[in-house]
Design brief:
CATH topology: Four Helix Bundle (Hemerythrin (Met), subunit A)
Number of strands: 0
Helix content: over 70%
Distance between the termini: 18 Å
Shape: globular
Strand content: under 5%
CATH superfamily: CDP-alcohol phosphotransferase transmembrane (TM) domain
Largest sheet: none
Radius of gyration: 17 Å
Oligomer: single chain
Length: 210
């Protein structure tokens, strides 16, 4: 819901840091893999009930996720890099949920429901991106993204905030997981409706961003 606005705020500082990292020899893929390492460690920390450590590692993962795109834009962004980035993003999100389920097995049902809702948001997002590219659709609000970014209630910023609060208050994971799952399902349903509308319209430019 807020990703477009947050991206516009962070674009300039991230670009400056990205340009600096490029001069030091960093590549976008290296930053993506560094972020993946932080994400894996965050999942392990959460599963061991070190949720504050997990939060710090998860936030480092999110920082790397922003920087790999900034580094890529300093050169020639590649589809291979974008593919790697999005796969790791969704894997880290799912891993965080699994980490909480391992931490406290009584939260397993809530974690399962949340993962179910993630399948809806991820599949509706990625499936639309495939057909949007084939039809030449463009989201003018998110042109810096490597694929069509179909917006919704629960995007990257909201997911990051929810995981942060879960790490701070892990005893309330189930309550937050059920609540966020509802929002994710609503997001998936909204994307299904909006995706079909835009694909039926077959307009080269998203009419809602003009």
């Amino acid at each position: 819901m807020f990703d477009a606005r947050i991206s516009s705020w962070l674009k300039t500082p991230l670009s400056r840091v990205g340009a600096s990292l490029v001069t030091r020899g960093w590549s976008a893929d290296q930053m993506t893999w560094l972020g993946a390492g932080f994400g894996a460690l965050a999942v392990i920390a959460v599963s061991l009930d070190a949720t504050l450590v997990g939060l710090m590692l998860f936030l480092l993962n999110r920082l790397c996720d922003g920087l790999d795109g900034a580094i890529a834009r300093c050169g020639q962004p590649s589809d291979a890099g974008a593919f790697l980035d999005i796969v790791i993003d969704f894997w880290v999100y799912a891993g965080m949920v699994v980490g909480f389920a391992i931490r406290d097995p009584s939260d397993s049902l809530a974690a399962t429901i949340l993962l179910f809702s993630f399948i809806g948001t991820a599949s509706s997002f990625l499936a639309f991106a495939v057909f949007a590219k084939s039809q030449g659709l463009t989201n003018l609000r998110m042109q810096q993204k490597s694929m069509y970014y179909l917006e919704g209630l629960t995007e990257g910023f909201e997911t990051t905030c929810v995981f942060a609060v879960m790490c701070l208050f892990p005893a309330y994971f189930s309550v937050m997981a059920y609540g966020f799952a509802v929002l994710c399902v609503l997001t998936a349903l909204g994307r299904i409706y909006e995706g079909r509308r835009r694909l039926h319209g077959n307009s080269p430019v998203d009419p809602d961003t003009l």
